[in-house]
């Protein structure tokens, strides 16, 4: 017993030693943990401070480069501000010294507008510098050394790092604060100057309308009037003033020539890179003659050069060179007209092309007359002589190109109008109208040329599948966009030449009557919305046509009804928007309509009945476009369901207009309401004694061989009756489409006749034996001797 106890004791002591060792290690770690934690925290803080110091050094390096760039931008903004301020002072001085000519006023207005644009860019740059400085400053900590680590809380080396970090951060914040203050100070000055320039520009624009009116209609003396030549104004003095003004304009062009040339070349390259591939892609299928191809390239170059110069004049000169601006628009318009005529001649071989170069020269001469502020006694004879030469060219060119009547040419009549105005003494106004008409003609030429190229390129696409949708989408969208863009181009020239004030005055022109005012601007917006609404209608109809191609035949009438409803819906929305634009109160309109509803209801009862019946037909879809219906004994096809009436077409190709109320209130048979299949019975009579089973099999075989007869439901043969002279059968078949019913029955009759002949089945026909029992004189006829036939001699 002793040995077992000793072994147990030894085993227990071993277990105690094994448990003591882990406990001792855990206690030792617990005692030493704070010391190790303190050492670890100090090491981590040192590492963190070193890392933040490196980040601050990188930030300082980056901030120096950013600050240098910001200082450079500030210096550029200060220089730009000084230049604009000096130019503004010169413009004010010029305004005080100049006469009340609208050309000078418009040039000053455009210069003010250019200064305003430049100053806005400068203000935006200054605002950006200030905001960037504020953002970078907010990223920096605003804590001081005491806030980060109070004195004595860190070792000396770490305390030194913290103090250096705080000093560098404070210096960087101070530099950013100084930069923001400079930007804010310059921004305040720029904003104040911008307000002055804007106010002065608005003041100039407001007075331009009256100035142009006085310029166009002042000293209006007829050409043959003696008073015309007595008008004040020295021609040598005017010539000297214009020469000095032209030299000043040439000096401005010379100062900015390098920037203008570089910008013009860049825009010219872009126009050529985009226009030439588009023209070639649109006229891919055409093979122009060498002469026409050369004309196209020449027109493209002139038009692109003119466009580049117009863009350069707008961006570089800003209206400081009115004569240069007129020349730029002259080049652009000449190129557009040449290109448009060449493209239309290529696409439409019958197009009569008369050179429009003299028209462009009219624009240039008229612009020179207006820009030079020529005296009235020189304007009237010079402009009249120019128009006489133009009319002579028109008559000669028309006789050579087209022997038809010259009265069909719109420029002939416009030339007569311009000449009459000039002879009456309105030379300046006549010149301006000619320039405006030329600009409108250029806008029309742009639209006509682009649409001709687009239409020719769309014709190369097949009329099937998704191409139909693509063609409808492109033409429906591109047409209003092109016309809107060309119209905007014309109005942009009008804005550049006359100014914003006169456009606003023209837009505010109104016709007032009984408290209702109709503004010209509202009419213009309505005209633009009309094209937008028409484009939406074309898009909706094209999309529904594309969707209907995937539908079964019996459901395609739904697409036609949906197209009608979409058309009425879009135009109805256009009407509501138009009333709102015109200023018509819908509430007042509702009140008036409510008051007149009783009288209108009695007086127009039939019209309203047809109107609501049309809505019932469209939404109820009991009758759809394309359905075959039967009204009384008339079979017809529904072609159009409108609000008032429904147009149907008989099988004799006669169109009938049926009021919608008649279709709603009377009985109408719709043969294609659910589907286009139809059951037809064909009567067949065979002679007595025929094999009826053979007749049945023959009829079924003939029916199964017909391509228009449906296999399901299967054809059936019915022994209908024992007729007076025939065995009557009915061949009952289902035809796949009601349009094929007549042809199917005809083919079946041909096939039955042929099959019966081959099977020796006789088709019966009525036969009658006549027995005469009694009649007056019958006995004498029976008793009379039979006459012998005459002998024939050999």
UniProtKB/TrEMBL annotation:
<feature type="transmembrane region" description="Helical">
    <location>
        <begin position="435"/>
        <end position="455"/>
    </location>
</feature>
<feature type="coiled-coil region">
    <location>
        <begin position="162"/>
        <end position="200"/>
    </location>
</feature>
<dbReference type="InterPro" id="IPR010920">
    <property type="entry name" value="LSM_dom_sf"/>
</dbReference>
<feature type="transmembrane region" description="Helical">
    <location>
        <begin position="257"/>
        <end position="279"/>
    </location>
</feature>
<feature type="transmembrane region" description="Helical">
    <location>
        <begin position="407"/>
        <end position="429"/>
    </location>
</feature>
<dbReference type="InterPro" id="IPR052702">
    <property type="entry name" value="MscS-like_channel"/>
</dbReference>
<dbReference type="GO" id="GO:0008381">
    <property type="term" value="F:mechanosensitive monoatomic ion channel activity"/>
</dbReference>
<feature type="transmembrane region" description="Helical">
    <location>
        <begin position="355"/>
        <end position="372"/>
    </location>
</feature>
<dbReference type="InterPro" id="IPR011014">
    <property type="entry name" value="MscS_channel_TM-2"/>
</dbReference>
<feature type="transmembrane region" description="Helical">
    <location>
        <begin position="520"/>
        <end position="544"/>
    </location>
</feature>
<keyword id="KW-0175">Coiled coil</keyword>
<feature type="transmembrane region" description="Helical">
    <location>
        <begin position="598"/>
        <end position="619"/>
    </location>
</feature>
<dbReference type="Pfam" id="PF21082">
    <property type="entry name" value="MS_channel_3rd"/>
</dbReference>
<dbReference type="InterPro" id="IPR011066">
    <property type="entry name" value="MscS_channel_C_sf"/>
</dbReference>
<dbReference type="InterPro" id="IPR049278">
    <property type="entry name" value="MS_channel_C"/>
</dbReference>
<feature type="transmembrane region" description="Helical">
    <location>
        <begin position="323"/>
        <end position="343"/>
    </location>
</feature>
<comment type="similarity">
    <text>Belongs to the MscS (TC 1.A.23) family.</text>
</comment>
<feature type="transmembrane region" description="Helical">
    <location>
        <begin position="467"/>
        <end position="495"/>
    </location>
</feature>
<keyword id="KW-1003">Cell membrane</keyword>
<feature type="domain" description="Mechanosensitive ion channel MscS C-terminal">
    <location>
        <begin position="684"/>
        <end position="763"/>
    </location>
</feature>
<keyword id="KW-0812">Transmembrane</keyword>
<keyword id="KW-0472">Membrane</keyword>
<dbReference type="Pfam" id="PF00924">
    <property type="entry name" value="MS_channel_2nd"/>
</dbReference>
<feature type="domain" description="Mechanosensitive ion channel MscS">
    <location>
        <begin position="606"/>
        <end position="673"/>
    </location>
</feature>
<dbReference type="InterPro" id="IPR006685">
    <property type="entry name" value="MscS_channel_2nd"/>
</dbReference>
<dbReference type="InterPro" id="IPR023408">
    <property type="entry name" value="MscS_beta-dom_sf"/>
</dbReference>
<feature type="transmembrane region" description="Helical">
    <location>
        <begin position="565"/>
        <end position="586"/>
    </location>
</feature>
<dbReference type="GO" id="GO:0005886">
    <property type="term" value="C:plasma membrane"/>
</dbReference>
<feature type="transmembrane region" description="Helical">
    <location>
        <begin position="378"/>
        <end position="395"/>
    </location>
</feature>
<protein>
    <submittedName>
        <fullName>Mechanosensitive ion channel protein</fullName>
    </submittedName>
</protein>
<keyword id="KW-1133">Transmembrane helix</keyword>
């Amino acid at each position: 017993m002793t040995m077992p106890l000793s072994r147990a004791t030894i085993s227990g002591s071993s277990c105690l030693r094994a448990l003591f060792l882990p406990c001792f290690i855990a206690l030792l770690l617990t005692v030493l943990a704070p010391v190790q934690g303190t050492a670890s925290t100090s090491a981590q803080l040192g590492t963190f401070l070193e890392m933040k110091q490196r980040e601050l050094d990188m930030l300082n390096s980056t901030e120096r480069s950013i600050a240098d760039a910001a200082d450079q931008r500030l210096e550029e903004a200060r220089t730009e501000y000084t230049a604009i301020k000096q130019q503004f002072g010169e413009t004010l001085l010029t305004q005080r010294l100049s006469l009340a000519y609208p050309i000078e006023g418009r040039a000053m207005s455009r210069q003010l507008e250019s200064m305003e644009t430049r100053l806005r860019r400068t203000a935006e740059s200054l605002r950006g510098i200030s905001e960037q400085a504020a953002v970078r400053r907010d990223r920096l900590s605003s804590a001081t050394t005491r806030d980060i680590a109070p004195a004595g809380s860190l070792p000396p080396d770490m305390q030194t790092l913290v103090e250096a970090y705080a000093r560098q951060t404070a210096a960087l914040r101070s530099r950013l604060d100084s930069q923001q203050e400079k930007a804010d100070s310059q921004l305040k000055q720029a904003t104040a100057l911008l307000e002055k320039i804007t106010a002065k520009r608005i003041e100039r624009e407001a007075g331009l309308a009256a100035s142009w009116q006085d310029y166009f209609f002042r000293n209006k003396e007829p050409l043959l009037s003696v008073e015309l030549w007595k008008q004040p104004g020295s021609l040598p003095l005017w010539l000297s003033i214009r020469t000095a003004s032209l030299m000043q304009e040439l000096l401005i062009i010379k100062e900015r020539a390098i920037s203008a040339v570089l910008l013009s070349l860049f825009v010219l390259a872009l126009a050529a890179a985009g226009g030439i591939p588009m023209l070639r892609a649109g006229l891919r299928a055409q093979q122009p003659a060498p002469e026409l191809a050369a004309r196209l390239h020449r027109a493209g170059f002139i038009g692109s050069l003119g466009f580049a110069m117009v863009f350069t004049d707008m961006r570089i000169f800003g209206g400081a060179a009115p004569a240069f601006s007129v020349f730029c628009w002259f080049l652009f318009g000449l190129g557009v007209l040449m290109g448009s005529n060449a493209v239309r001649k290529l696409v439409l071989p019958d197009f009569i092309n008369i050179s429009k170069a003299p028209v462009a020269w009219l624009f240039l001469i008229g612009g020179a007359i207006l820009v030079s502020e020529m005296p009235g006694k020189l304007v009237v004879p010079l402009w009249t002589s120019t128009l006489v030469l133009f009319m002579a060219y028109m008559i000669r060119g028309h006789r050579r190109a087209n022997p038809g009547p010259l009265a069909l040419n719109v420029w002939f009549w416009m030339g007569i109008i311009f000449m009459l105005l000039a002879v009456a003494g309105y030379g300046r106004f006549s010149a301006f109208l000619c320039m405006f008409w030329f600009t409108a003609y250029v806008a029309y030429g742009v639209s006509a040329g682009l649409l001709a190229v687009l239409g020719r390129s769309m014709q190369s696409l097949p009329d099937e599948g998704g191409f139909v949708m693509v063609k409808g989408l492109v033409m429906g969208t591109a047409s209003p966009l092109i016309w809107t863009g060309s119209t905007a181009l014309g109005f942009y020239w009008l804005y550049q030449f006359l100014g914003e004030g006169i456009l606003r005055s023209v837009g505010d022109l109104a016709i007032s009557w009984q408290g209702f005012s109709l503004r010209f601007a509202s009419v213009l917006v309505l005209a633009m919305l009309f094209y937008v609404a028409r484009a939406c209608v074309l898009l909706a109809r094209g999309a529904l046509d594309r969707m209907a191609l995937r539908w079964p035949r019996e459901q395609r009438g739904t697409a036609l009804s949906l197209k009608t409803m979409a058309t009425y819906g879009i135009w109805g929305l256009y009407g509501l928007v138009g009333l709102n634009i015109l200023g018509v109160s819908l509430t007042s309109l509702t009140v008036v309509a409510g008051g007149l509803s009783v009288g209108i209801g009695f007086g127009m009862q039939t019209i309203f009945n047809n109107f609501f019946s049309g809505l019932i037909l469209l939404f109820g879809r009991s009758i759809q476009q394309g359905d075959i219906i039967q009204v009384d004994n008339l079979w017809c096809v529904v072609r159009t369901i409108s609000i008032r009436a429904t147009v149907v077409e008989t099988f004799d190709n006669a169109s009938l207009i049926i009021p919608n109320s008649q279709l709603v209130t009377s009985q109408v048979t719709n043969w294609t309401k659910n589907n286009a299949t139809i059951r037809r019975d064909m009567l067949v009579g065979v002679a007595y004694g025929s094999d009826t089973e053979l007749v049945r099999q023959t009829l079924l075989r003939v029916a199964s061989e017909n391509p228009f007869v449906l296999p399901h439901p299967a054809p059936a043969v019915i022994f209908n009756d024992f007729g007076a002279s025939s065995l009557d059968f009915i061949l009952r078949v289902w035809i796949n489409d009601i349009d094929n019913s007549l042809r199917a029955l005809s083919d079946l009759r041909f096939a039955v006749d042929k099959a019966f002949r081959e099977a020796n089945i006789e088709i019966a026909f009525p036969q009658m034996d006549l027995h005469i029992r009694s009649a007056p004189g019958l006995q004498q006829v029976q008793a009379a001797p039979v006459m012998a036939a005459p002998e024939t001699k050999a």
